Amino acid sequence: MKRILLITLSLLAFFAAFAQADTLTLQDIEEILKADPAKAGGNHYCYPAGDYSPAPAPKGYEAVYISHYGRHGSRHA
After folding, report:
1. Count H helices, E strands: the chain?
2. CA-CA distance, 43 to 73, in Å (whole number)?
3. Is 45 in contact with 39 (CB distance < 8 Å)?
4. CA distances in angstroms from 34 to 6, 17, 28, 63, listed in the order given
């Protein structure tokens, strides 16, 4: 009985802690989608590409480029 009570109280404390967290409201989501309708594409939304600058090669090594077509991440870019 003590074990069940302890588990129940632990779960209540866990959920109470996350109930205080900031959450998005429907109005917030509508504003985000109005600002950028492409985000409503679900799995078809490509991540925005930022500025990319490769790290320099370590001393004594030469930088190379390796092209990779993997089956993970965004495939629509």
Report:
1. 2, 0
2. 10
3. yes
4. 46, 32, 10, 42
* pTM over cut 0.70: no
Please give the C-alpha separations between residue 20 and each of 13, 15, 24, 65, in angstroms, as whole numbers: 11, 9, 12, 47
Tokens of 52: 């990319």
Which residue matches tokens 């490509």? 46
The beta strand positions in the chain, using DSSP E, are: none
Instruction: Quote the CA–CA distance of 9 and 15 in Å, as a whole number.
Output: 10
Give tens-digit pLDDT for 49-68.
Answer: 777 787 888 999 998 888 77
pLDDT digits (tens, 9 = 90+) for 25-35: 888 889 989 99
